Amino acid sequence: MKHKNEVGLASEELGSANAPADQTEQTMSEIRQDCVYRSAGRPEKTDMIKSLVMDQDASRNCELYLPGSGNRSAVESSEESEEDMYRDEEEIEREKILLSESNSSEYKLSVSPEMDIMEYCRKEWRGNTPAAKRMRKGYEAVAQKFASIRRIRGDNYCAFRATLFQILSQATQLPRWLQSEDFTMLPENLLSKYDWIKHWQLRQKPGKRMGEIRDEIKEYLILLRQKWKNISEIKGPLEKQEACDKLFKNEEEEYSLYEALKFLMLNTAIELYNADKSGKRVPVFSWLLFARDTSSNPCQLMQNHLNHIGHSGGLEQVEMFLLAYALQYTIRVYRLYKHSTDEFVTLYPNDPEEDWPVVTLITEDDRHYNIPVRMCQETML
Question: Which among 57, 116, 155, 215 is annotated as catalytic?
Fold first, then answer.
């Protein structure tokens, strides 16, 4: 589906989304078959997206990220007894020491200063386990494109933080959908149609009344447009980077921006859901998004997933697609634990619009994200 350039308003079909669906839910296999049928003979993309979405390593718990915690990967269990099977004694002891230092102010930075990417790799993955060797190979591949890395604070907002930081640090203009006059009216328009949005969970502010939710989300959207506009107008790269660093040290503004992103994801989900119900073509990930038992419609998506992001979990794989569509950006992710496979470099979405800008992230386990910076001169040329 060609995504709209402006953030549109959803139709009224979901007004009764709180009520149970009348129709029988399809199984995942039936959904997959239907996706293949509607995708005009492109089943290979369906399989790839399903593989991403069903990966159990895409845990919603984005744990606190500390130097040394990179030893956690999708191939290593969180159970200590199983970790010992994969990690040597040196790695385990080093992590214990680093965890004991976790009260240091350095670890509270939202985006840490950059460091050489291979130096970071050698520091984090010194063992000789299969996982450590695979990670080093992955970092070596990334180092062919980028010279440095910046660690992202892991507090269940890491996917939002990494994506938005990359977007703003590269922004040169305000996207058209952010310029729309209706943009800041989204909360009022959606709340007037869908009463269930009153159960939206604001960060650390449970039990808000509908009017308060509407006004606060509107403020978050205004803040997002203002910060995006101000930073995109900065011409010098150093000045732009300083502005981004300053913004991501302001905790109140930073978390307000993440609430704005979550609401944009909800609006996009409503648009996709209504488009599908109207018989229009939608991207494959949309089918998989609403094929989950916990998100068969946008109301359930909000209650069971979006409301928990930043509180008790992070973004799942299929929600990375939704984030990309909401922002009209292509999110390219180096998935280091998938090195030497076709999924090592994954695009969200996998078939983006040609004019969508691209931002790049790094993950070791599909739960925590860091950002590569300073593209190598050869790559730029």
Answer: 155
